[in-house]
Design a protein that fits this description.
The complex is a heterodimer of chains A (about 325) and B (about 575).
Chain A (H helix, E strand, L loop, with lengths): L1 H29 L9 H28 L11 H34 L15 H30 L7 E8 L2 E6 L33 E3 L2 E4 L4 E7 L4 E5 L4 E5 L5 E5 L5 H8 L5 E5 L11 E7 L1 H10 L3 H6 L2
Parallel strand pairs in A: 1-5, 4-10
Antiparallel strand pairs in A: 1-2, 2-3, 5-8, 6-7, 6-9, 9-10
Helix pairs in contact in A: 2-3, 3-4
Chain B lengths: L8 H6 L4 H31 L6 H7 L10 H37 L7 H20 L30 H30 L12 H32 L10 E2 L2 E2 L7 H35 L6 H14 L15 H13 L1 H15 L8 H23 L2 H7 L3 H31 L5 H19 L2 H6 L19 H31 L64
Antiparallel strand pairs in B: 1-2
Helix pairs in contact in B: 2-4, 2-5, 2-17, 4-5, 4-6, 4-7, 4-8, 4-14, 5-6, 6-7, 7-8, 7-9, 8-12, 8-14, 9-11, 11-12, 12-14, 12-15, 14-15, 15-17
Classes of the chains: A alpha+beta (about 325), B mainly alpha (about 575).
Amino acid sequence: MINILIAIVVFLIIATLVQILRVSELLSEINNTDVNEVTDEDNNTQGKLSLFIMFLFLGFVIWQMISWNHFLLPGASSVHGEIIDGLMSFTMNLILVVFFILTPLLFYYAFKYRGKKTNTAYFYSHNNKLEIIWTIVPTIILSGVIVYGLQTWNKAMNPDISQSKVIEVYSKQFDWTARYSGVDNQLGEANYKLVQGRNQLGVDLSDENAQDDIVVREVHLIKDEPVLLKFRSQDVIHSAYLPHFRVQMNCVPGMTTQFAFTPTKTTAEMRETEGEDFDYILLCNKICGVAHYNMQMKFVVETKEEHDIWLDQQKTLKNTLTLK
Amino acid sequence: MSGHHQETFITKYIFSQDHKMIAKQFLITGMFMAVIGMIMSALFRLQLANPGQSFAILEMFLGKWAPGGVLDPSMYLALVTMHGTILVFWVLTAGLSGTFANLLIPLQIGARDMASGFLNMLSYWFFFLATIVLLWSLFVETGPASAGWTIYPPLSALPQSIPGSGTGMTLWLISIAFFIVGGLLGSLNYVVTIINLRTKGMSMQRLPLTIWAILLTAILVVLSFPVLLSAALLLIMDRSFGTSFFLSDIIINGEVLHNVGGSPILFEHLFWFLGHPEVYIILLPALGIVSEVIAINSRKPIFGYKAMVGALLAIAFLSFIVWGHHMFMTGMNPFLGSVFTFTTLLIAIPSAIKVFNYLATLWKGNIQFTPAMLFAIALVSTFITGGLTGLILGDSALDINVHDTYFVVGHFHIVMGLSAIFGMFSGVYHWFPKMYGRMMNKNFGYIHFWGTFISAYGVFFPMHFLGLAGLPRRYYTNSAFPMFDGLTDINSVITVFALTGAAFQFVFLFNFFYSIFKGTRAKQNPWRSNTLEWTTPIERIHGNWPGEIPSVHRWPYDYSKPGADEDFVPQTEPLKEGEEEH
């Protein structure tokens, strides 16, 4: 029944459109004008409409910036993240300035130079000086952006990792597992062929370095202490995304990737500003299958004392797997 | 070639070798696919704004994939994948280039037809075959391809990893292989025709910018699409013949696979070596169309013709050395990331030149607001808005936190999607009289334009905020994470605009088909334009000009030239005594 109604409504709409078209064409035939000729009146209406819609558009942009500002991620909780945030606000301000100059200019020109039968356009085919200026100015500004960007990138990607705690983040459809490297700060060898039973990460249990490794489903980090995350994947490409730390790295089957950073704010500190239910979270940011949208793991940043208490409660691989 | 040989129904409308008919075939097929792609986006937008809610319309369209009217997560991914595939390849590559390259090359350079009419026909029919296979994949048991339009393996290689990587993916790959063959046949033909068949006096410096853009597009296609073809073939080998080009060390559903030594990253390199030039394959024809439309309707020469050509050349060249910016987060060497950041941000320079030149063209013009002109101005606007956010995404350090979020979705839909579709609309409104000998209704054009323009920004601008909030793309719902709870508000705004925008497209469709049959008859040169296509008879003839092909004496942009009798001087008009060329 509803389908028939929809069909009738669609049919009526089309019939109305046809009639409107016919009427407008007949009217212009009576007036001996061409209905599709763009008249001065059209230019006037459309020119003014351009200006009006531009204001509407810019107003909409400003409204979004004000009323949706609180949705944006809070300031970075990592050392390199703060540098990235600096670059971000620099670039964002730059593009906003350019946007708020060029967009009004475009629509203002459209309005200002709306056509009239009596007007003649100004024949102006080129001006080398002008063109050189607007090639060189963007080039200079861009050089600045590029240099600033590359410096930031180098700082973010090449930190000193000699003191970093090594933690492995292991991904598979559709969950994350982490492995602490233990007191020796060295991860035991792993191979996908060894994945079996409770040895979900395929750790080589005969490896000396693996004995003190600790497998967990939640990552605890110490404030202001550097970590080195190493990523592996069991099946498809995943992407480890920690938005609050400005950390992201793909997890690719067959290879190991890594990202080093230093957290700067504890979860408790974040809760003071972001609300009681705040948690750092690791998301999957590369399409990986049906439950991609729900692949997550909690990260906790805490003081060294809290962290050590938690770590002591976890069992090493030696205790969980080899001695069963 | 004679313009008077006998045509039957089949050679005229179906297996036609006339470039003008082939252009219409590309356009209609592209429009048909655009409607399908648009409906898909409307369906997944319903889910995104109302996670888990039941809609009768979803069950009506999707049947078992929306049990009880609730969209199935795997079908959500399939819809997103097919929407991307259809819009990127079918609508904005074949639909846009196929239509306007075919229509405009011979008409604007003064040729009877393409260098090879037969190859041209073959190009369309390979495309048609690809279309059939792709549509067929919508109806297979395990659903269509759903690994994202970028089909990264292993997800796309292993049927165990996602239902859509079964038969649906096989058909996707076969379809894209046919598509590429069609694209290569067409593009080779375009290049050869533009180089060899220009009429007397049509030097490269006198080519309309549309043709320059199409020439560079065709060169990009010829150089980059074969790489995707090779990637598709290797992926077919991995999927069906047990090779390990892209697979290594995998356990899926508890099964240990034998594949060792391949690399999924290799696929990403092959994919984006096409994928980035592809962005410009989509964008350049739109920029070409708009350069022409803006000059004509400002009644002014395009400002800085040489700089415009130079900028096109620079963009085309740079587009081949920036693909790595899609892969900053794959674990590539940070130094390599630096190189790609550098080359990527360089593209902003020719892009800025283009924008400034468009503004200078409008300046002191006598602007005629045809629907085509409105869409052209809208393209400049989206090119500015979307281009600017590219400065964030192209900067590897900033990409760390916005990579694969909705910020990217907003960026590329505005700078590439909207710009290209606005360019396409602009071209359709502008050259409709040449295609069908009738006019599209102006007032319906206005309604369509403003409805589309407002909704378009309403859909894609808010996505930047979703991205800056950290919401990843291709998520079935934002409700699995407490940190994204508030974002449903933004998603609702987007969906309302998306559905409104979709409704306005029916105004266009109606106007288009009504005007083919009932539109008012077109005049010889309705937009008072200089280019050669308006010297051909209104009624389509095979061979374009009944007599001699006219020769060309000047560039195409002599609008409002001082000393001329009218505000336009066709290219066929010889220079007056003592008249300067520009």
